[in-house]
From TrEMBL:
Residues 224-343 form the DNA mismatch repair protein S5 domain. It comes from Absidia repens. The chain holds residues 1 to 355 of 716 of the full protein. It is found in: Chromosome; Nucleus. This is DNA mismatch repair protein MLH1. Belongs to the DNA mismatch repair MutL/HexB family.
């Protein structure tokens, strides 16, 4: 008689499956914050305030003045694939708002303790609810999980506490709160610059001073000055271009030849989402390599609006790195605009010093 040593296959518990899936999307506080900021912007907010404790690992809180969430929706808002932004499959490629997966809040609730307080304009009071693993959960054992009426302004406050409390390995890998806080600040800064017209702030819990603070009347360039300083903002060239053939529009502020620093800053937005593109990064390094002293790098803010069908965001679950459908054509077109802007700036500078 031989003993069967082949391991048998077992189905993982759904809570574990959801937690693993959530961990693919949410790697650190800054990923969670990005999703939360995009939700606040989708809700039409003009004021977004972020508070973090221990770099967002202990607490990450975002308060907005957007349209709020209806009380009746609070029961399902943290479930997977629940969204107010997508009704049928075809919408998926057309949708212009930032988040379109209905997965962000669900994911966060699988890896943190989530509390939502929200008030719509029509409601007399705000409602507060707590979530764990996608579902409403009682604040204390023995209490009901139903949303509770409370005082509050129009808009939504979302708090995520003890990130990765249930994934100790992930939690241990993120040891430095100050490094995480820098990433949080980086995300807030990017969205603050891109969304002139919306005031942003970000500070540590209990602190009087915000590390990032913009006002709603400020322009993109005001926000760049506010966050990156006037040594950058005074050396920027503005450009915009529409390419009708591919329904593609770009706007940029790029530094001129006077500005040179150790590392490239690239603030890239595609359809109003902060993303990375290796192709664009490489093109920028290339364009500036002949212009700046050896080891010198530029500052580039670039916002692209493009038919969603022409950009592939599904390279990675976090949707951070994107590819273009016509990658070469698209990046070459942007490169031509950059070169033109830099050449014009250069010749007017020469002209100025000669006169
Ligand atoms: P998605 O943004 O893809 O719809 P999310 O999980 O990020 O999915 O959010 C689920 C839903 O919760 C949204 O569709 C929206 O209706 C609501 N929601 C989330 N955050 C906010 C907010 N700050 N203000 C108003 N509604 C919100
Ligand atoms: Mg979203």
């Amino acid at each position: 008689m031989s003993i069967d040593t082949t391991p048998s296959i077992k189905r993982l518990d759904t809570t574990v499956v959801n937690r693993i899936a959530a961990g693919e999307i949410i790697h650190r506080p800054a990923n969670a914050l990005k999703e939360l900021i995009e939700n606040s912007l989708d809700a039409g907010s003009t004021q977004i305030q972020v508070v973090a404790k221990e770099g967002g690992l202990k607490l990450l809180q975002i308060q907005d003045n957007g349209h709020g969430i209806k009380k009746d929706d609070l029961g399902i808002v943290c479930e997977r694939f629940t969204t107010s932004k997508l009704k049928k499959f075809e919408d998926l490629s057309k949708i212009v708002t930032y988040g379109f997966r209905g997965e962000a809040l669900a994911s966060i609730s699988h890896v943190a303790h989530v509390t939502i307080s929200t008030k719509t304009k029509d409601s007399k009071c705000a409602y507060k609810a707590m979530y764990a693993d996608g579902k409403l959960t009682p604040p204390r054992p023995g209490q009901t999980a139903d949303p509770k009426p409370c005082a509050g302004n129009d808009g939504t406050q979302i708090t995520a506490e003890d990130l990765f409390y249930n994934i100790p390995t992930r939690r241990k890998a993120l040891r430095s709160p100050s490094e995480e806080y820098n990433r949080v600040l980086d995300i807030v800064s990017r969205y603050a610059i891109h969304n002139s017209g919306v005031s942003f702030s970000c500070k540590k819990q209990g602190s009087m001073k915000a590390e990032v603070q913009t006002t709603s009347g400020a322009s993109v360039i005001d926000n760049i000055r506010q966050i990156h300083g006037s040594s950058v903002s005074s050396e920027l060239i503005y450009g915009e271009r529409t390419f009708d053939s591919l329904d593609f529009k770009m706007q940029c502020y790029i530094s001129n030849a006077n500005y040179s620093v150790k590392r490239t800053t690239l603030l890239l937005f595609i359809n109003n989402r902060s993303v990375d593109s290796m192709g664009i990064k490489r093109m920028i390094e290339n364009v500036y390599s002949s212009l700046l002293p050896k080891g010198g790098h530029p500052f580039v803010y670039l916002s692209i609006e493009i038919k969603p069908e022409n950009v592939d965001v599904n390279v990675h679950p976090t949707k951070q790195e994107v590819h273009f459908l016509n990658e070469e054509w698209t990046i070459n077109s942007i490169q031509e605009v950059f070169k033109e802007l830099l050449e014009n700036a250069n010749s007017s500078r020469t002209f100025y010093t000669q006169s």
